[in-house]
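Shipment paperwork, digital attachment
Item: protein structure file
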Amino acid sequence: MAQALGIIIVEKTGTLKVLNIKDFKEDELYKKCGFKTANGFEKQHEWACKIEGKKYCVSIYAKTDGKANNENKYDFPPPIDTILFFGSCALVVRIKNEDGTTSFVNLTIALWDKIYEKLFGGFEDLAATCIEDEEEEDELDAIPAEKKTKDGYLKDGFVVDSDADEDDEDYCSDEDEDEEDEEEDTNDYNENDGEDILLVENIGSELSEEEYDYESDDKSL
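Attachment content:
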């Protein structure tokens, strides 16, 4: 005798809908998905997972052939996440008993959400992760103050204190000092060069004033 059972219909739009079937018959599931015939409508996969100590087996019934623009948009868990289904699909769950047998049980949205998350490997709780990050101890707190910059960063080959940058600006290399000395020598040479020219001109002027009188020498003879 068939039993009443709750299943989930996955509509082609991706919407989940719980359907309670009073007289459940596995070979008539195609009708619950809106198909006129059972051609191509069959069990495509069965997932097995353990939730809260219970072992579940979820079966999906669907078609892999259909018309364009009739593709099912729901994201199913692996390994069928790359398979394209058409029209609505049906999800049915069985539970494994201690004696090794299985029995159909009602599949609710809440139960499917837990199974869905388990099949995807679990989803990260961003809120919990944020709290963990805030409570995580800062490694720099254990570093002595003299090994850190005044901004709190660890001193290394790339991060230095800002005071060191200022000292670098005041630092003058030997090459810079040599260049400055050469400039001073050049300036001194230019100034002295002008004085030497002036001195030569003065000597020349004195020599020009003392001209030799050749006529007086001729008369004495």
